[in-house]
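Treating backbone geometry as a discrete language has practical consequences that deserve illustration. Part of our work consisted of pairing the sequence of a single chain with a tokenised description of its backbone. We regard such an encoding as a compact summary of how the chain folds. The amino acid sequence and the backbone structure tokens for this protein are reproduced below.
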Amino acid sequence: MYQQWQRWRAARVFESIVHDLNELQRVLLGRAATPTAVVFDGRTLQSTPESGHRAGYDGAKKRKGRKAHIAVDTLGHLLSVVITPANEQERAQVGQRCQRVQEITGKPSRSALVTKAIRAKTPNTRQRCMTLICRSSPSPKGKPTLLVPRRWEVERSFAWCSRFRRLARDYERLSNSLQQLHFVVFACIMLARYANSA
């Protein structure tokens, strides 16, 4: 079973399943197949003895573990995941996530970076984040990307993930296993939602 999981993990099978289900559900809801707005956020998964030596320390949450940086559309469906030690900065992963989202959708997307820096009232901090987003995901006409206040969408996605034991804490030795487990969980969630709506 583990060898089969290794093959599926390397081929990103569950990632492809989630993207196909996402397109199907969006079309059934009368939306465009590919999203035009994306919300980013990250959460720290507390380490366990299996993953402890690869973990970092998140000073804000006062927790040792790894951080899952995710990108979701406005329905809360998962688009991309980046796994880093918990001491990595949220803004440092925006470029990689934007690039992955653009590979999936095939077009630039408006992005909302959900971090404490964005919510801070300091104008300089907000401007730095907006500039970073614009460089990572420019709009087609060259205009500045607008920040979309959709924090609850990504927080709801985190709540869905936390219901699954394998994502309640970091039990994985390998980062790509933790990354692909997020897609396994969302495949289950989206199939359950599709079955209930059918």
Notes: The longest strand covers residues 37-46. The helical segments are 2-11, 13-28, 94-105, 116-119, 123-136, 151-162, 165-168, 175-197.
